[in-house]
Design goal:
alpha+beta; 19 helices; Serum Albumin, Chain A, Domain 1; seven-stranded antiparallel beta sheet; 30% helix
């Protein structure tokens, strides 16, 4: 594919591959890697001063240092809203609400009121870490054949996405309400003020939003097209003032009526009507579906890595389990000595990711419908899985293991193995307040601009149901992540909170990027912990990894040069544009140091 076209598609939310010219003959792989595992965890948490000088680290953005609190988001206006609330005496929960309301306005292609989110909240007073599941749910009328054509074949992705059948019951508003009622400090209406100001007065169209609209070719609804484009169909120019009075009216209703104003009454009617009267593929949402939506508070999944305690989101997200599996499978290797961007680091990490994705695709789904095996994070199981990683050749395509028996070999499982298309139009919010409360929230409407359906209330509806596996049965076995009524689709979102060996809050991070989220979060954690980089430098490292397919290497970065050696080891490779979207905050001697992904428009701010 033409690289310029690929970059445009990536900005629009697609992960695209750049097929290189005829490959050079594979060279010999390097000699054996450092074999001595680390015998002791790091003696000191890595901070900015620990980061070695490396000329290859991209420095489009500098790390930000603050003493008391910090907020990192994918858009400067959203970061400013969170900062305003923190300075006004709000805490991390309050700031998260204000940030999300602004993101839904200025970055509507990625998240908003019509979508869902996963959120980790660390309560500094109690020391408790809570995982809030605000994932969308399938309508009560949904059946496993939802995304099959008349001949029983899975629909093409965009045939399924565009229109009402891809729309799940939104969870974001109920999540924000529950979070703030349990943990917030400021009055609920105060949190709406930054977003209402911007919606009524207008905000400048950013280069990213302009590029996304320019690349979008699936406007099927006149309302959405009229909002995002000019009268002649061109994308609104960069810097143009864009107001959304309909969104402001919706926010005023929510500020006065709380979450119930979204899940019943005029806003709920608007959501149902917009999905069910879609110009293509009319949906089947009902008022009962919305009224019955509930956020689920879950126990995070946690595990040790080099003396740190890493905690993530449990199912229906696969992100927490997969990131922990990757880290535990590489822990026996001395990744620190191998160095960033080295052949052996890319090989070992990519192989661990193959194994983690194999288990993910087989076992993880909504736990109310399918319970994942308890042994997926068992230390003995993962140690045996890690022994499948060779220094002589790539695994290629990894089969799932058998965590039920704590065995590494392929399982004779009762589920069909089914992947799902996940596109990277998502946003990460990372916040730490002056008391040490923390939020890691990954929020999404799934594909860029979701279902492409905009409500009369000025917000887009998700296409989250396409995160289900389209084929309900594979190899004669039901797929765990198949569509079912009321079910939450599997996700790769991986909001992550890390604690040091003293139990102190150490890092708050996560990423956008569809199923690439898992690999991008793992890479950032390895950069911070193993390579002792500050979070900005760790985020800026080249993205690479495998989703149990080709080993993917980020275009225009030094890891592309590893392609011949990887092929000589049996890796199938491809060059991709990975927009990622990591936002990370890390404790250091001066307080907090933060980084925002240079591939997006995000910024970090704190006092």
């Amino acid at each position: 594919m033409n690289p310029r076209l690929c970059i445009a598609l990536a900005l629009a939310g697609a992960v695209c591959a750049i097929v290189p010219a005829r490959a050079q003959p594979p060279s010999q792989p390097p000699s054996q890697p450092p074999s001595q595992p680390l015998s002791q965890p790091l003696s000191q948490p890595p901070g900015a001063r620990d980061a070695p000088e490396r000329s290859f680290v991209r420095t489009e953005k500098a790390a930000v240092q603050s003493r008391h609190f910090m907020v990192a988001t994918a858009n400067p206006l959203a970061t400013e809203a969170g900062y305003e609330i923190l300075r006004a005496g709000g805490n991390a929960a309050d700031a998260a609400v204000a940030v999300q309301l602004v993101l839904g306005l200025v970055e509507p292609q990625s998240s908003g009121l019509g979508g869902g989110a996963f959120l980790l909240y660390r309560d500094a007073r109690t020391g408790r870490l809570i995982a809030y599941d605000g994932r969308e749910t399938a309508p009560g009328a949904a059946t496993p054949d939802r995304f099959l054509d008349a001949g029983g074949k899975p629909l093409a992705f965009h045939d399924a996405v565009i229109g009402g059948i891809s729309v799940g019951v939104p969870g974001t508003v109920r999540l924000l309400w529950d979070l703030q009622r349990r943990h917030g400090r400021l009055p609920w209406p105060r949190l709406f003020e930054p977003a209402i100001r911007l919606a009524e007065n207008g905000f400048a169209v950013s280069p990213r939003l302009h590029a996304l609209v320019a690349a979008e070719g699936h406007w099927v609804q006149a309302r959405a097209r009229a909002y995002f484009t000019t009268a002649d169909g061109a994308p609104r120019p960069i810097g143009a003032l864009l107001a959304n009075p309909a969104y402001a009216r919706t926010l005023r209703l929510l500020a006065a009526g709380g979450a119930d104003a979204f899940y019943s009454g005029p806003i709920a009617d608007d959501v149902v009507r917009t999905a069910d009267a879609a110009p293509r593929h009319r949906g089947d949402l009902t008022r009962r579906d919305l009224a019955g939506y509930r956020v689920v508070a879950r126990e995070p999944v946690c595990g040790g890595y080099r003396g740190y305690r890493v905690c993530g989101m449990p199912p229906p997200s696969s992100g927490g389990i997969a990131v922990l599996q990757i880290l535990k499978m590489i822990e026996p290797r001395d990744i620190a000595s191998m160095g960033a961007e080295s052949f052996w680091s890319v090989h070992f990490v990519s192989e661990a990711e193959r194994l983690a994705f194999a288990d993910r695709d087989a076992y993880v789904a909504d736990p109310a419908y399918v319970q994942p095996p308890a042994g997926m994070l068992d230390a003995r199981y993962l140690r045996r899985r890690s022994m499948l990683i060779s220094t002589r050749s790539s695994i290629g395509h990894a089969p799932p293991g058998d965590p039920r028996r704590r065995m590494a070999q392929p399982a004779r499982i009762g589920w069909g193995v089914g992947a799902a298309a996940e596109f990277p139009s998502t946003s990460q919010v990372s916040i730490v307040d002056r008391e040490g409360n923390a939020v890691a929230m990954t929020t999404t409407i799934e594909d860029a601009f979701g279902s492409r359906l905009m409500t009369e209330g000025g917000f887009l509806l998700n296409n989250e149901l396409t995160d289900f596996s389209f084929a309900p049965v594979v190899g004669g076995r039901p797929v765990a992540n198949r569509v079912e009524a009321g079910k939450r689709p599997r996700s790769s979102m991986a909001p992550t909170i890390v604690f040091d060996r003293r139990g102190r809050l150490f890092a708050v991070l996560g990423s956008a990027g569809g199923s690439l989220i898992i690999n991008d979060v793992a890479k950032t954690l390895i950069g911070i912990i193993d390579w002792r980089l500050d979070p900005q430098a760790a985020i800026a490292l080249p993205n690479f990894g495998s989703r149990n397919g080709p080993t993917e290497l980020e275009q225009g970065t030094p890891v592309v040069a590893l392609q011949p050696k990887l092929r000589a080891m049996g890796h199938a490779t491809r060059i991709i544009v990975d927009p990622s979207g990591v936002q990370a905050i890390v404790r250091n001697a001066g307080g907090w140091i933060g980084g925002a992904d240079p591939r997006r428009e995000g910024v970090v701010k704190g006092d």
